[in-house]
UniProtKB/TrEMBL annotation:
UniProt lineage: Bacteria, Bacillati, Actinomycetota, Actinomycetes, Kitasatosporales
Protein source organism: Streptomyces citrinus
Name of the molecule in the record: Response regulator transcription factor
Domain of life: Bacteria
Length: 224
C-alpha cells in the first residue's frame, strides 16, 4: 500500500487552515500532519514532522512565507520537503521571490479543490506546479536582465539541445509539448530535463524556470 502524502498547512487564517485540512484529510492517499499560523511555526513543524508538502501562505505574521520557504529549502535535512506557495493574487509580488527561495510552485487560494489536490500530488512527486501564463507575467515584472550579454557561467556546461529544452521549460511547455516542438521522444525529453536538474543543481522544474530567466537565456516575451 502506498504511503499517504503528508501535508503541513501554513496559513494565518484559522478558517482557511481548517478548510484545507478537511480537504486533505478527506482525500484518499493524503493526510494533514500539522498546522501553522505563521512562518516561524511552519519552519519548526517542518523540521519536527518532515512532511512531504508544505502548503505555504506567503503573507503571514512573525515570519512571512518567503523567509519560511527559504529556511526550509536551504535545510539539507529537509531535502525531501516540498513547498507549494499559496497566494490570493496572481500578481502577488511575493510569488517570484518565493520561487527564488525554493518553492516548487504556486497556486491561487481560490483554486478549486481538485486543482489543489492535484497540485499537492504533483509537488509530492517531485514535479512543479506553475501556471505558465502567470509565471511569465511574474518573471516579466520581477526579474532583471543580466548586466552583460555573455552567457551565465552556470550555463557553460549545457549542450545546445539542453539550452533549447531549458528555454522551452521557461516558456511553460510540458515535456510532451517540448517533444513535439523539437521532434524528439518523450523519454529523450525526460533525459534532458534530468540532466538539466543535475547540471544546474536545481531542485525541480520551477527552479529551472528561475535559472533560465535570471541567466538571460530566456527573456519575457520570448515565443514559447
Amino acid at each position: 500500500m502506498t504511503e499517504a502524502v503528508r501535508v503541513l498547512i501554513a496559513d494565518d487564517q484559522a478558517l482557511l487552515r481548517g478548510s484545507f485540512r478537511v480537504l486533505v484529510d478527506s482525500t484518499p492517499g493524503m493526510a494533514a500532519v500539522g498546522e501553522a499560523g505563521d512562518g516561524a511555526t511552519a519552519v519548526r513543524l517542518a523540521r519536527e514532522l518532515r512532511p512531504d508538502v508544505v502548503l505555504m501562505d506567503l503573507r503571514m505574521p512573525v515570519m512571512d512565507g518567503i523567509a519560511a520557504t527559504r529556511q526550509i529549502c536551504a535545510d539539507g535535512a529537509l531535502s525531501g520537503v516540498r513547498v507549494l506557495a499559496l497566494t490570493m493574487f496572481d500578481m502577488d509580488e511575493y510569488v517570484y521571490p518565493a520561487l527564488q527561495a525554493g518553492a516548487s510552485g504556486f497556486l491561487l487560494k481560490d483554486a478549486s479543490p481538485t486543482e489543489l489536490v492535484q497540485g499537492i500530488r504533483v509537488i509530492a512527486a517531485g514535479e512543479s506546479v506553475l501556471a505558465p501564463t502567470v509565471t511569465r507575467r511574474l518573471i516579466a515584472n520581477f526579474s532583471r536582465p543580466p548586466a552583460a550579454p555573455t552567457p551565465a557561467p552556470r550555463l557553460v556546461g549545457l549542450t545546445p539541445r539542453e539550452q533549447e529544452v531549458l528555454v522551452l521549460i521557461a516558456n511553460g511547455l510540458s515535456n510532451a509539448e517540448i517533444g513535439e516542438r523539437l521532434v524528439i521522444s518523450l523519454p529523450t525529453v525526460k533525459t534532458h530535463v534530468s540532466s538539466l536538474l543535475a547540471k544546474l543543481r536545481a531542485r525541480d522544474r520551477a527552479q529551472l524556470v528561475i535559472i533560465a530567466y535570471e541567466s538571460g537565456l530566456a527573456e519575457p516575451g520570448m515565443p514559447g
